[in-house]
């Protein structure tokens, strides 16, 4: 499907931007000003990029670059984030016979598994949309992902801004970092899992980003024009940092409550400065890296 750029980009909407550091906010707003010229407005959120990761003109070109990578071709199971720019990729992955794991919006209803063998072929495209995913996919708990022995060698996400070191700033809610943390905690992903960000060229910046210890770096940055390979992408070697969750997240996200029950005790506290973990955190990391 060919998508044309909006004729007149509307004024940038930032009224519901969540709390974030000044640095991250400035980076996001810088990119959002450029992105609105190529972004496809959402049917619900329009151009409020603090509420969703938008599709953009050329996302299908970026998708074609992605499916030619070895890490895509060899992966049997792929986590693909519920971002607008990844809908066509979710559909293509089903056509390629891959199992797709995706979360619902805001992770509020957890994880869904799309298996092309369990979905009629004529419904693959419908299933690649978030509403269709919940109709034709299978809801899976973290316990089910672990008990079924699912391993995820590739994760794909959209984002707000990203630099050449693979450090990404999304909407500001930290959902992808939570998804990584939960899947890492149950052994479904590890530091060998490849992470890809699919973005428009205007979202790639040369400047340094000041990230947090839980920010999940990307091995590849794929745009509508090129593939950027990142050496030594930084990925957290632990699960959820419970006392750093935003207020209300534990109440809103059932998967977090499930994980807390799985791993409690012990709980992971905030990493100390320079990643000098407490003994309690080290015990948790040993648990999280256990091969279930």
Automatic annotation (TrEMBL):
GO cellular component: cytoplasm
Composition-biased stretches (Polar residues): 13-24
InterPro entries in alphabetical order: FTHF_cligase, FTHF_cligase-like_sf, NagB/RpiA_transferase-like
Residue numbers spanned by region Disordered: 1-26
PANTHER family: 5-FORMYLTETRAHYDROFOLATE CYCLO-LIGASE-RELATED, METHENYLTETRAHYDROFOLATE SYNTHASE DOMAIN-CONTAINING PROTEIN
Protein name: 5-formyltetrahydrofolate cyclo-ligase
Source organism (scientific name): Botrytis elliptica
């Amino acid at each position: 499907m060919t998508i044309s750029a909006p004729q007149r980009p509307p004024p940038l909407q930032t009224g519901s931007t969540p709390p974030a550091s000044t640095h991250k906010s400035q980076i996001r707003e810088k990119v959002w000003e450029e992105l609105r010229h190529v972004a496809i407005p959402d049917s619900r959120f329009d151009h409020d990029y603090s509420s969703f990761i938008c599709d953009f003109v050329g996302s299908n070109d970026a998708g074609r670059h992605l499916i030619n990578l070895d890490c895509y071709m060899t992966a049997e199971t792929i986590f693909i984030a519920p971002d607008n720019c990844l809908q066509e990729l979710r559909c293509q992955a089903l056509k390629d016979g891959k199992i797709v794991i995706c979360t619902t919006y805001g992770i509020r209803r957890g994880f869904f598994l799309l298996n092309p063998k369990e979905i009629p072929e004529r419904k693959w495209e419908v299933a690649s949309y978030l509403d269709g995913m919940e109709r034709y996919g299978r809801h899976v708990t973290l316990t089910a992902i672990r008990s079924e022995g699912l391993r995820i060698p590739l994760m794909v996400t959209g984002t707000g801004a990203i630099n050449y070191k693979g450090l990404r700033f999304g909407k500001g809610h930290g959902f992808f970092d939570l998804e990584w943390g939960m899947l890492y905690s149950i052994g479904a992903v590890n530091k060998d899992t490849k992470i890809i960000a699919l973005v428009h060229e205007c979202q790639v910046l040369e400047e340094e980003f000041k990230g947090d210890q839980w920010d999940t770096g990307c091995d590849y940055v794929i745009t509508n024009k090129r593939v950027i390979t990142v050496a030594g992408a930084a990925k957290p070697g632990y699960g959820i940092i419970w006392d750093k969750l935003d207020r209300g997240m534990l109440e809103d996200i059932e998967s977090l409550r499930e994980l807390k029950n799985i791993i409690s005790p012990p709980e992971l506290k905030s990493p100390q400065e320079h990643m000098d973990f407490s003994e309690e955190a080290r015990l948790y990391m040993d648990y999280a890296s256990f091969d279930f």
